[in-house]
Design a protein that fits this description.
Rossmann fold, 9-stranded antiparallel beta sheet, binds adenosine monophosphate, binds glycine
């Protein structure tokens, strides 16, 4: 098979690495790819949000199967254009990608099928959003609560805001400010509508489920660390590290999330004539063993996928093919009873301003094999050297019989990298390590 993967981050490097191990793959092209991906596959430059251009490229290169990494092409309808051109594709249609593109849409789907999630309200103007917030806070005070007893409250821009459109407001003023910012255009068109939600307490974890429109197959759980600093402090990032499985989401909790959240939502999407095909990433809040939905993403998580691919290996391609060909009822996941961890190495300054172009050493000497890989997230080749080209730059990823072993190996990889302009957290997995 000739396979095309769209994207160029650590998620796509790990997908490419898994796909390349499968003998079904004859030729792999990744667009745009990065310096690490260039070491194992061909890289091509392509306008990822132009479905016509992607379909034309796929036809010209005799591509049999396209895997779409990021959400933007899916929301732009690239999977629809590929299917119209008769090309097998892993990723949902534009209509189904609304599960990530609109928070309001997801809330409405949850309500329609009774899936547990935070109580919510949607607003299209600042005045009514602010009145709602004021009412929320004063109702609690009237009941005898302290000022701001109703905090926190969560204010969300409805649309795609590259992970930045969510404000967990600590008091009424903070919430009102967030509303003004969103309607003031801080998140562009994504903030034209706003969803205001109840704050959910608990522990967050992610569940990855393949869906072929009808059948569902869970392929793994993970937890990531969103904050930049150790002890989960400081500003939010795209994720500073992740591990799989997520102990908090094992066994009965996962079954409950499947039965009460994922299955009903997937059935509701089918009922509406917009069946969901691809990987559904359910972000869950778990409290006392009860999962509630925080959000859906319509793609694999980054960096969670790096840990997931390290565990799945070559079978990831068979599973994605079974999904795209609507054969998930015949598919099963062969689980090793193992653990994987990925540690993100980022450019100093991230998630704020950072410099690009620093040279990364040590990559030739770290020992990589089927259980140890340094996936590249933001790198380019310049004069034969690997240089940093993004905020999150490398993902040191390893597998082990226990989480502690995976962690030790992942940090062993980190310590082999010579990159003074980078930084990383030393405490990835602390919560799971403390619990187990
Ligand atoms: P989202 O983009 O919806 O994933 O939101 C980003 C992050 O904000 C989530 O990963 C949670 O940590 C937090 N968050 C979002 N909604 C809620 C909520 N209703 N209650 C608590 N935390 C939330
Ligand atoms: N790691 C979070 C995400 O991929 O959205």
């Amino acid at each position: 098979m000739n396979i095309l993967i769209l994207g160029g981050g650590g998620r796509e490097h790990s997908l490419a690495w898994a796909v390349m191990q499968n003998p079904k793959c004859d030729r792999l092209i990744v667009a745009p790819g990065n310096a690490g991906i260039a070491g194992i596959a061909e890289c091509a430059s392509l306008d990822l949000e132009n479905g016509g251009a992607v379909a034309e490229f796929a036809v010209a290169n005799s591509i049999d199967f396209v895997v779409v990494g990021p959400e933007a092409p899916l929301v732009a309808g690239v999977a629809d254009r590929l299917r119209e051109a008769g090309i097998l594709c892993f990723g949902p249609s534009q209509a189904a990608a609304r599960l990530e593109a609109s928070k309001y849409f997801t809330k409405e789907i949850c309500d329609a099928c009774g899936a547990p999630t935070a109580a919510w309200a949607r607003f299209t103007d600042a005045g009514s959003a602010k009145a709602h917030i004021h009412e929320h806070f004063s109702a609690r005070t009237a009941e005898g609560g302290a000022p701001n007893a109703a905090a926190p409250i969560v204010v969300k821009a409805d649309g795609l805001a590259v992970g930045k459109g969510v404000i967990v407001a600590i008091d009424e003023a903070n919430a009102q400010e967030a509303v003004d910012e969103m309607f003031g255009g801080a998140f562009g068109a994504a903030g034209a509508e706003v969803v205001i939600e109840e704050f959910m307490e608990g522990e967050e974890a992610s569940l990855f489920v393949l869906c072929d429109g009808e059948n569902v197959l869970p392929i793994g759980t993970a937890q990531d660390h969103k904050r930049v600093g150790e002890g989960d402090t400081g500003p939010n990032t795209g994720g500073m590290g992740a591990y799989s499985p997520a102990p908090v989401l094992e066994g009965a909790v996962m079954q409950r999330a499947m039965n009460e959240i994922v299955r009903p939502c997937v059935a509701e999407m089918a009922r509406r004539g917009t069946p969901y095909e691809g990987v559904l990433y359910a972000g869950l809040m778990i409290s006392d063993g009860v999962p509630r939905l925080v959000e859906y993403n319509v793609r694999f998580g980054d960096p969670e996928t790096q840990a997931l691919m390290m565990r799945l290996g070559a079978q990831a391609l068979d599973l994605m093919l079974a999904c795209a060909e609507a054969r998930l009822d015949e598919a099963c996941v062969n689980w090793a009873d193992d653990h994987a961890m990925t540690v993100v190495m980022a450019a100093r300054g991230y998630p704020g301003a950072y410099e690009k172009g620093s040279v990364i050493g040590g990559l030739d000497t770290v020992a990589e094999d089927s259980g140890h890989m340094v996936f590249h997230a933001g790198t380019v080749l310049r004069d034969g050297q690997v240089v940093a080209s993004g905020g999150r730059v490398l993902n040191a990823t390893a597998r082990g019989a226990t989480l502690a072993e995976a962690r030790e190996r992942a940090y062993g990889l980190v310590d082999g990298i010579d990159w003074p302009q980078g930084f990383h957290r030393r405490d990835i997995g602390w919560r799971a390590a403390a619990d187990h």
